[in-house]
């Protein structure tokens, strides 16, 4: 599902990533851990097509994404990748449901999601699967607790049925109870939909939730920066 070959990325004349080869099979759930500043988020942004490497190839499925133009990378990401950022990036003044429906609109899934009776029905089903009560659907994102916002972020990343979800330190602000709840719900949805999950974090207590755990230093020949 994901493969990297001879990837190098430099910033301000300093090599941040030098990864000769790395591969993730479809449906795997991978935790990539490392210290702050080690290049974890940089790698995730490269996988998402938000940045491009200086050299090498990044393949998602059959597509070498770093060979695409910026516009085509955006389109590919919108259709095939889900992204959960550390700061969530929900639109605070939009309702829970509208935050999810906007993500569906941007990924062009609204018209083609007929298997669930329409994208709105699908959004409501996913919100229910992460145990958000219907009474919250029309509240604005800023009215929710952090744990509730995290669940909305899962649904927003899932709404267009991506092949891969990339998660950047999404549990860093959660207490242990909400962290475990978030991970259980994310893993259940990924498993049910055969979605490949790659999460980067410095928190090794998350390791029990993943089928594969790797240190960034094991694949990055530059080591920590």
Task: Report on the architecture of this protein.
The structure is a single chain. With 225 residues, the chain is of the alpha/beta class. It has a single domain (2-219), classed as 3-Layer(aba) Sandwich (Rossmann fold). Helix content is 33%, strand content 24%. It has 7 helices and 9 strands. It has helices at 40-47, 70-80, 96-106, 119-129, 146-158, 176-192, 216-219, and strands at 2-11, 14-24, 29-33, 55-60, 63-64, 81-84, 164-168, 196-201, 212-215. Strand 4 (55-60) and strand 5 (63-64) form a beta hairpin. It is globular. The model has no long low-confidence stretch (mean pLDDT 88). This is ABC transporter ATP-binding protein. Pfam families: ABC_tran (PF00005). GO terms for molecular function: ATP binding; ATP hydrolysis activity; transmembrane transporter activity.
């Amino acid at each position: 599902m994901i493969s990297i070959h001879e990837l190098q990325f430099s910033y301000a004349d300093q090599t941040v990533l030098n990864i000769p080869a790395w591969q993730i099979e479809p449906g795997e759930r991978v935790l990539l851990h490392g210290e702050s500043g080690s290049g974890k988020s940089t790698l995730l942004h490269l996988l998402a097509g938000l940045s491009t490497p200086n050299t090498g190839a990044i393949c998602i499925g059959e597509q070498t994404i770093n060979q695409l133009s910026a516009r085509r990378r955006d389109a590919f990401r919108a259709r095939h990748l889900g992204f959960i950022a550390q700061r969530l990036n929900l639109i605070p003044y939009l309702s829970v449901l509208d935050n999810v429906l906007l993500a569906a609109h941007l990924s062009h899934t609204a018209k083609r999601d007929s298997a669930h009776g329409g994208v709105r029905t699908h959004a409501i089903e996913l919100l229910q699967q992460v145990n958000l009560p219907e009474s919250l659907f029309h509240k604005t994102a800023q009215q929710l607790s952090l744990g509730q916002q995290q669940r909305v972020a899962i649904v927003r990343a899932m709404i267009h049925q991506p092949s891969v979800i990339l998660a950047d330190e999404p549990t860093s602000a959660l207490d242990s109870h909400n962290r475990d709840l978030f991970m259980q719900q994310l893993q259940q949805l990924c498993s049910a939909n055969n979605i490949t999950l790659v999460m980067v974090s410095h928190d090794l207590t998350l390791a029990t939730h993943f089928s594969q755990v790797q240190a960034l230093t094991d694949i990055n020949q530059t080591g920590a920066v």
